[in-house]
Amino acid sequence: MTASSHVRSTASRAADSKPLEYLARGGFIAYGVIHLIFAWIALQLAFGNSSAEGDQSGAFQNLASQPMGKTLVVITVVGMVGLALWQAFEAAIGESGEQDKEAIATRVMSGIRAIIYLSFAWTGIKVLKGANASTGDSQQKGASSLMDSTGGRFLIGLVGVVVVGVGIGLVIYGIKKKFEKRLHTEQMNPAVHKTTRRLGVAGYTSKGVAFGIAGVLVVAAAVTYDPKKARGLDAALKTLAGQPYGPWLLGLIALGIAAFGIYCFFQARYRKV
Cα torsion for 213, 214, 217, 221, to the nearest 10°? Predict the structure, then answer.
């Protein structure tokens, strides 16, 4: 057995362990709770509360302010780490033995998801430490520094285009119901299957729209040399809230994100892990 084969075999055994499966399923519950809080913050923005912070740091800070909030944040952080580990193993070994283009693309996406889950965990840790966890502020500072460097504006614009692409991909992923291939739909009764499908479509589509708006703002920041526009989801939601009919659209997005949060609870039960 080669060294690479031995590593893959060891990783495969670890990925199939029951503790990791339970940790990942618990992580989906935590991920769902964070999205429900995020949806509540988006609704507050829609109704004129501009002081609410519409990103993951705002969601963690909101959670930490509740009774036993810090304990809940710790549990959520552990769940996010569990999801990150699971996706890291998926990226390392793949979901099957095949290594065609689709399988490679799936492994790449697993790696990206692992990074996203780790970023959520890190935000939660910063909230627990009492640090300023605002992702919007850090993105603005980073954009400002990049704009002062050679090629920085181009790089920021490229990042914005990628984020727009991610948003479009999420919308397509939701509308085409591609998420269903990752669920044990054969274990669902017709009513549960129908509910899960509707939640997934609404959730992924709404997240895609939010990411798309954020990406457009990042591109605009590069074009207009305005780092204040490069604040991610927080700025995207607040910009939308300030437009004609924006509060209504933001309200719909908030409901969609809430749908995704509930969908995560179904993932905790039926996701192929």
Answer: -170
The upper half-sphere exposure of residue 66, i.e. CA atoms within 13 Å in the direction of its Cβ, equals 10
Of the candidate ranges 50-64, 190-204, 248-262, the one whose mean pLDDT is the lowest? 50-64
Tokens of 257: 């994100």
5-26 as b/e, with b when 16 or more CB fall inside 10 Å? eeebeebeeebeeeebeebbbb
pLDDT confidence tier of residue 260, bands split at 50, 70 and 90: very high
Using CA atoms, how far apart are residues 205 and 224, in angstroms rounded to an integer? 28
Cα 135 to Cα 123, 126, 226, 230: the distances in Å are 8, 11, 17, 10
Q: Classify 271 as helix, strand or coil.
A: strand
Specify whether the CB–CB gap between 57 and 134 falls below 8 A: yes
CA separation (Å) from 78 to 30, 66, 72, 109, 150?
A: 9, 18, 10, 21, 40
Longest dimension (CA), the chain: 64
Integer Cα distance of 26 and 32 in angstroms: 10
Could you tell me how far CA 9 lies from the centroid of its own chain? Answer: 29
Cα separation, 206 vs 35, in Å, equals: 12
Output DSSP code: residue 228. G
Please give the full DSSP string across 148-211, using - where no structure is assigned. TSTTHHHHHHHHHHHHHHHHHHHHHHHHTTGGGGGB-GGGS-HHHHHHHHHHHHHHHHHHHHHH
pLDDT tens per residue across span 201-232: 999 999 999 888 888 888 877 777 665 655 56
